[in-house]
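Project channel, design review

CF: Before we commit to the Candidatus Sulfotelmatobacter kueseliae constructs, I'd like one complete example in the thread so the newer folks can see what an input/output pair looks like. Taking SH3b domain-containing protein.
RD: sounds good, go ahead.
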Amino acid sequence: MSRLGPSRIGWFPLAAFLAATLLFPACNRGRHRVLEVAYVSAPQAALRDQVAAVYNRVGTVKNGDRVEVLEREKRFARVRTAGGGEGWIEQRYLVDQKTFDAVQKLAQDNQDDPLQAPGVLRNDTNLHVTPGRETEHLYQLASGAKVSILKRATAEKQLGALPPAKPTAVSKGARAPAQAAGEPMLEDWWLVRDDQGHVGWVLARMVDVDAPLEIAQYAEGQRLVAFFVLNQVEDNDKGVRRKVSQYLCVLTDPHDGLPYDYDQVRVFTWNVRKHRYETAYREHKLDGVLPVTVTQENFDKEGTLPVFLLRVKDGAGNVSERKYKLNTPIVRRVLAPGEMPASSARKRRG
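CF: and here is what came back for SH3b domain-containing protein:
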C-alpha cells in the first residue's frame, strides 16, 4: 500500500496538465484574432449570421459605430461590435482607422471656424474628408439636415457623374470662369458642420443657403454665398413695434470653379420711414476669400458700430483685409494708416 500511494499522487499533476491542454482549445473555440478596427459608414447596416443568400439577421450597426474586424471573405467581413455581438457585414459599409483619424482631425482643425451661412441639404449626402466625389467619407447626413457652412473649395468634376447642367446666362459685366481647352471642369464644395459637430466636405449644389426671404429676393440672379446680421433697428409701423435685422451679403455669379469665393458685397439697411430694405452699400470686382468676419468696434463720437472684415486677393494672390463700418444707413471703409481706397469700389444708396 505504501508503494502504491506515491505513484498515484504523482499522476495527479500530469492528469491536470493533460486536461488543461485539451480544454484550452475548446475554451477559445469561436474566438477570432482581431485583424483591424473599422467604422461603419452607412446610416444603418445589418449583421448576418453567415455569408449566404439565405441568412438570419443577428444585429444592427449604425453610422460611426466602431467594430473589430475578425475575418474577411469576398465582399464581407466578420465583425465584433462594442457590445460583443458578432456577424457578417458588407465591406463597402466599413472605413479604416486612417479615415476615421482624418475625419477627427478635420473636425478639430476647423472647430473654431466662424459660421458663414446656415444651409439645408437637398439630398442624403456624405461628409467627405477632402473635396471630391471619390474621396473617403465616414458620416452621412439625411436630406433636410441643417448645417453650418464654413469654407469653399473646388475639385475636378468626375465626367459622367451628373448630367450636364443647363447653360446659365451671364449677367452684364460678370466674370464667367475661364475654361481653357483641355483643362478639367471644376465644381464647388462646401466645408460644413452638422449639429453633432461632424465636419466634412459636401458638393455645393447639394446645399441651399438658408437665407431670409427678405434678403434672398434681392440676389438678382447671383449666388448668395454668405450673409451676416450686422445689427438691428427699431421699427414702428402704425403702432406695431419690432426689431429688424440689417444684413451684409456676399455674392458671386452662379458658376462653379471660380478662382474666388465671392466677387461682390451688399449691405441692406432698413428704412424706418418707408418700412422696407434698401441697398446702403454695394461693391463689385472683388477677389474675395472666406471667411468674412463681423464684429463691433468703438469709434469715439460715433459710438460702438458694427464692423465687417473682408479678405481680398490682389493680382499676385496675396490676401489682405479690408475693414468697413456701418453707421446706419452709411457704410464706409476704415482705412489703415497709409492705405488708399480701392478703385474697384462701387457705392450706391437707394
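RD: helpful, thanks. The chain has three domains: 36-95, 110-159+185-210, 216-350.
CF: The domain at 36-95 is CATH 2.30.30.40 (SH3 type barrels.).
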